[in-house]
Amino acid sequence: MCKKGLLIVFSGPSGVGKGTVRKYFQADPELKITYSISMTTRQPRKGEVDGIDYFFVTRERFEEAIANGELLEYAEFVGNYYGTPFDYVEKLRNEGKNVLLEIEVQGMLQIKEKCPDALTIFIVPPSMKELERRIRGRKSESEEVIQERLAKAEKEMLLEKEYEFVVCNDDVLRAASEVASIIRKHM
Ligand code: 5GP
After folding, report:
1. 0.85 cut: is pTM over it?
2. Mean predicted lDDT score pLDDT of the chain
């Protein structure tokens, strides 16, 4: 029987560049990483694809998933639900794959309760000014949502102490290689 894969929780404030850092270390085949696709009620952004970036669902479908116990964790973030499908994660881990959850801090706290052996990594920006610049650069949200996401980021940063590892995204390649070496040490 193969060794069960790691459960890796990867978080950081909105706009910090988690997705970009992830794409770099995820490309390393030695790390055997599979990205867990979340379910969300948020509308797709330009270029996002259903079943690849997220499973985009209605609030009714999401609430049904909560009621049926289909989710390993879930949270409400700036007016939308986000959650991790449980069966999919278990199946991949049982196949020996290291499963990466890119989720916000409330979800991480639930995972710490349910899976104390999860590896938790928090990505921080070099400064709050730089974070604001990155969120605005994405040009996908209204001013109201940008303000909400920035306020949320300030709160999320207070929870970085709940994570085992904190990595600064000052440079994407450097941050990706630091995350890769953390994962390698735990395999
Ligand atoms: P975004 O709307 O920018 O894609 O995601 C907003 C926040 O929700 C990000 O911090 C992202 O990591 C988080 N998120 C994405 N999927 C999940 C999930 O399944 N569960 C939780 N708790 N957070 C998630």
Report:
1. yes
2. 94
